[in-house]
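Page 37, continued from 36.
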């Protein structure tokens, strides 16, 4: 098997992007990163595609801030 075709887990991809594995799963569900499913239903990501995204950048313009995703207002310093 070619090293570019190695399959990565959501945790491995998350470590490369320095995000939570659930974020990687959301990216895949939204079509921002390609994934395949194992027979057991787990997501895997092609190493070659992940490397290309790391080099070319992933579009984060529509990312939701953690505060917005929880419905809580963002905390700002009081002074």
């Amino acid at each position: 098997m070619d090293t570019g075709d190695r399959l990565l887990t959501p945790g491995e991809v998350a470590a490369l992007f320095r995000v939570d594995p659930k974020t990687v799963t959301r990216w895949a569900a939204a079509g921002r990163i390609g994934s395949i499913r194992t027979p057991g239903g787990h997501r895997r990501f092609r190493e070659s595609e992940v490397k290309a995204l790391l080099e070319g950048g992933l579009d984060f313009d529509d990312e939701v801030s953690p505060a917005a995703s929880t419905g809580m207002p963002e905390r700002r310093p009081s002074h």
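DSSP finds four helices and three strands in the chain. Flag for discussion at group meeting. The radius of gyration is 15 Å.
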